[in-house]
Specification:
This protein is an alpha/beta fold and 188 residues long. It has one domain (4-186): DHBP synthase. The protein has six helices and ten strands, in the order βαββαβαβαβαβαβββ. The strands form two sheets. An eight-stranded mixed sheet has the order 2-3-7-4-6-5-9-10. Helix 1 (7-15) packs across helix 5 (119-128). The protein starts with a strand and ends with a strand.
Amino acid sequence: MPAALTPSAAADVLHRGGVIAYPTEAVWGLGCDPFHEAAVLRLLALKQREVDKGVILIAGALEQFAALLDWDVLPTDRSEAVFATWPGPHTWVVPATGRVPHWITGRHDGVAVRVSAHPVVVALCAAFGGPLVSTSANRAGLPAPRQRADIEAALLDGTDGWVVGDTGDLAAPTIIRDARSGALLRGG
């Protein structure tokens, strides 16, 4: 069984290319350093998820996305609509800069991002010093776990630890919208 970690200890694991489980607004997630290709591919293998689909990045502050998102291509009203929902449980697909690797965007030209208000996520991203991959801690097609005890044992055993904490009050995973159009891509 992987060890329980504080956000600071989890950040050390992430910097070494590790994969962790951690609580988010609604469900337990898997995370890693988005710029460490081997870590992302390991995480996707644990989930049995194709790299083409892309993954969400989560941050504790908007500044952590500074060089990754191309806000200039969005009209002011669209970027203001995004900013009005953060920090909070709203994920947006925003045009990505060339700094976002293909193993994050998948086959898309945008990247799904969220600035969270969840205290564990905020502490974890602050300790790590940037955004993390955030995908539910379940195999593709299976229900996302609301409690750590609900994470499949083999999946949890494939991580390098889990961050102590509880999920938030959100009843379902966050909605995902397209920042360009506002269109709903995934319901909550």
